[in-house]
Amino acid sequence: MGSTGTAQYRIASDDPAKAATVFVSGGMVTAYLIPIKELSPPALAAVRFALEFGKRNGGVFYCLFVTERDSAGSAAGALDAAGPPRPADAKPSDPLRRTLEGQIAQARADAGLQIECVQRQGDYLQEVRQFVRDHHIAEIILGLPEDARDSRAKPHPDALLLHQLTHCRILTVKPKTKEPDPSWSPSS
């Protein structure tokens, strides 16, 4: 129990090329999930919080992009090998997408954070639930819209359902009223 040796953990991935082995000295690796339904200021706030949290605390972070299937059953989004999955409504010039991609890439390079972006298609809650089970997620970092009711009075419905389905701790993040400059970096 009191061992301070180096432990080796395998990070699973659907893509064998993205699987990784992490060596941790003297402790467990905590896995965090940032589920993203759509690129929005709340999603960006959740990713920013996760990057800052990761710099201070370590762990493995997953950005899970969930797209609903359209009536024909095809995916509503497409995977972009250069960065996070691209929802169908996100254009390459979308400022939120560029900001998100840049911050994730910089966190990987500069801060050495273990971050993986994953695309899933289907029902948002069910996909998050299954991902949590498959990857042994300990905490979910959930972005909430600014107009969400006071979380101390009553939990947000998505947060409540995710907690019931996954039994994970849920960290809720709201965008600041004045968002920082898009050139913000996790290493500053």
UniProtKB/TrEMBL annotation:
It comes from the Bacteria. Residues 34-143 form the UspA domain. SUPFAM superfamilies: Adenine nucleotide alpha hydrolases-like. It holds the Pfam family Usp. Coiled coil: none annotated. Residues 75-96 are annotated as: Disordered. Transmembrane segments: none annotated. InterPro entries: UspA. This is Universal stress protein. It comes from Desulfatitalea alkaliphila.
